[in-house]
Design brief:
Radius of gyration: 17 Å
CATH class: Alpha Beta
Structural class: alpha/beta
Largest sheet: 7 strands, mixed
Number of helices: 8
Shape: globular
Order of helices and strands: EHEHHEEHEEHHEHH
CATH architecture: Alpha-Beta Complex
Number of strands: 7
C-alpha cells in the first residue's frame, strides 16, 4: 500500500522511509499563515490549529488523488497555550529562543489520513520539552550552526540535528517531536490492510 505524504518535509519523508512505508510526496501547498491567523481570530488553541492544518493538508491533496490514502501532518509549539510560529528571519529565531529559554513548552504533532477528499483518521501527540537556561551568546552560537532556510522551513530547533543540546529534558516520542507520530500511523495502516 503506497500512501501520499502531503508535505515537503524531508524529515517526515525520512521517517516513513525508515519504517519501510511506501510513499510519494505531493505537497499540499496550503497557506499555513493564513489558516493560522483565521483560527487564532476564532480563538483556537495551538492543539486545534495543529489538528486543523494536518486535516486541511491531507484533504486538499486527497481531492486531487481520489482512492489514494493521503497523510497530512503539522507540528506547532505551544508556550503557555500561546502559538509559537516558525521564524521568518534569524533575528526572529533568536527572539523565539529567548522566549522559550528556561521554559517548559509543548510540541504538538498532528497527523491526518484522508481518502476521497474526506478525513478518515487523525491523531495528535503532545511532547513536553524544557529548555536550559542559556545566555544570549549560547543561543546565538546555536543558531549560527543552522542555515537560515532550514530555520525558516523547520523552526528554531531540530531535535534530529543539534537541537537536543538546548534542552534540560525532552519527554515524548522522538519521531513525534520530529513531526510524525509514526507508531500510531503504522497501527492505523496495519488496520487498513486487514
Amino acid at each position: 500500500m503506497k500512501i501520499i505524504l502531503a508535505s515537503k518535509s524531508g524529515v517526515r519523508k525520512r521517517i516513513l522511509d525508515t519504517y519501510n512505508i511506501d510513499n510519494e510526496v505531493i505537497a499540499s501547498n496550503v497557506d499555513e499563515h493564513e489558516i493560522k491567523e483565521s483560527l487564532l481570530a476564532e480563538g483556537a488553541d495551538p492543539l486545534l490549529i495543529s489538528k486543523n492544518l494536518a486535516e486541511i493538508k491531507s484533504i486538499k491533496v486527497s481531492k486531487k488523488n481520489p482512492d489514494r490514502y493521503v497523510l497530512g501532518a503539522d507540528s506547532v509549539i505551544s508556550l503557555n497555550n500561546e502559538l509559537i510560529n516558525k521564524p521568518n528571519s534569524r533575528k526572529e529565531a533568536l527572539t523565539i529562543l529567548k522566549k522559550l529559554n528556561n521554559s517548559k513548552h509543548y510540541l504538538i504533532s498532528s497527523v491526518s489520513i484522508a481518502k476521497n477528499g474526506a478525513m478518515i483518521w487523525n491523531h495528535t501527540d503532545s511532547s513536553e520539552l524544557k529548555m536550559k537556561n542559556l545566555n544570549e551568546n549560547e543561543l546565538s552560537s546555536y543558531l549560527n550552526k543552522i542555515e537560515t532556510r532550514t530555520l525558516i522551513a523547520y523552526g528554531v530547533y531540530q531535535i534530529e540535528a543539534n537541537g537536543l543540546e538546548l534542552f534540560e529534558y525532552v519527554k515524548g516520542d522522538k519521531d513525534s517531536i520530529m513531526g510524525l507520530p509514526i507508531k500510531e500511523i503504522i497501527n492505523y495502516i496495519d488496520q487498513l490492510k486487514k
